[in-house]
Write a structure and sequence with these properties.
Layout (H helix, E strand, L loop, with lengths): L25 E3 L5 E3 H6 L15 H8 L5 E4 L17 H12 L5 E8 L2 E8 L10 H17 L3 E7 L7 H20 L4 E9 L1 H4 L8 E4 L10 H5 L2 E3 L2 E3 L4 E4 L9 H17 L4 E4 L2 H10 L3
Parallel strand pairs: 5-6, 6-7, 7-8, 11-12
Antiparallel strand pairs: 1-2, 3-4, 4-5, 9-10
Length: 302
């Protein structure tokens, strides 16, 4: 039952006189908790009710991380072109224009330099609102230039990933950014400059396969989706020559430090565990154990 009823029919309120409740006064988390947005902002966009990390963009990250929100943006006017003249249901140029107008961003990443707790730092933060945070040529170029700035000025580099992966509208040009950013990070490592990678929700696809996993320190938000292929890709069958193919996964897990104290050894042991998972059938996982290695050595040909 309504709280109020109109007694006189035919009374209309003009559109310009309607009083809408201002948007954004309250935020509801996936678990159903309701928080006042001012309280949420004061708590750095983490729900005090259930610990949920709200998906935010570069503007919020810069405000949180840079002292007094003071920073110098790098390469802020760099924008994507359309050399492939890509078109699906819409021209790529039209998608770019629509995304720029909607988000007031030039592309899916912003890079900046400033001070955090009084220390110089270069930060690159991705915006999922811009075409799913997809990595195109501009994203790769801006990250590469930010790393160059870190090397030149000897400043640590922080990468905040929030991406659906490679930008398919740029095809191979997008995939080239995986190699470009990885090479630049190798140069950063050679210069002995720290690289911190923060993976937020979601971090998937080519982003995961490149710079997101190469940090000297890798950090992730609690319960963030971090994957190479998202759950939708894994769940949906692949249609090949009129046949429906379903992807199965076998996962091997090794844990630091008990299963190894180096990346090479951890990967080797995870690989051993993966083959054990494969032998158990589809959609299985196995944790590494010393017994697996002993068994592998037993059957290894002399």
């Amino acid at each position: 039952m309504s709280w109020f009823q109109r007694k006189d029919k035919g009374i209309q309120t003009s559109t310009e006189d309607k009083k809408d409740v201002p948007k954004g006064l309250w935020y509801k988390t996936p678990s159903g908790k309701v928080i006042e947005t001012n309280e949420l902002k004061e708590n750095l966009y983490v729900s005090p009710e259930d610990g949920y990390h709200v998906r935010i963009g570069s503007a919020e990250y810069f405000e949180i991380l840079f002292d007094n929100n003071e920073f110098k943006e790098l390469d802020e006017n760099l924008t994507s072109k359309d050399p492939l003249k890509f078109e699906d249901t819409k021209k790529y140029t039209d998608r770019l224009k629509a995304a720029q107008e909607k988000t007031n961003l030039k592309d899916a990443v912003r890079t900046a330099v400033g001070k955090s707790l009084g220390k110089d730092i270069v930060i690159a933060a991705m915006d999922f609102a811009f075409i799913g945070g997809s990595m195109g040529s501009v994203v790769g170029e801006k990250i590469a230039r930010a790393i160059d700035y870190s090397i030149k000025h000897k400043m640590p580099f922080l990468m905040i990933s929030k991406s659906g992966g490679a930008r398919m509208m740029e095809a191979s040009l997008s995939l080239m950014q995986l190699a470009k950013t990885s090479v630049k990070l190798a140069q950063l490592a050679d210069a002995k400059i720290p690289y911190i990678s923060l993976c937020t929700d979601p971090t998937t696809g080519g982003t995961t396969a490149s710079f997101a996993m190469l940090g000297d320190i890798n950090i992730a938000e609690p319960n963030a989706l971090i994957a190479f292929a998202g759950p939708r890709i894994v769940r949906e069958p692949i249609i090949l020559a009129e046949e429906s193919l379903n992807i199965g996964t076998s996962i091997g897990i090794s844990v630091y430090p008990q299963d190894g104290d180096s990346a090479d050894l951890l990967i080797k042991n995870a690989d051993t565990a993966m083959y054990k998972a494969k032998s158990a059938g589809r959609d299985n996982y196995q944790f590494y154990s010393d017994e697996m290695q002993q068994l592998a050595e037993k059957f290894q040909p002399l």
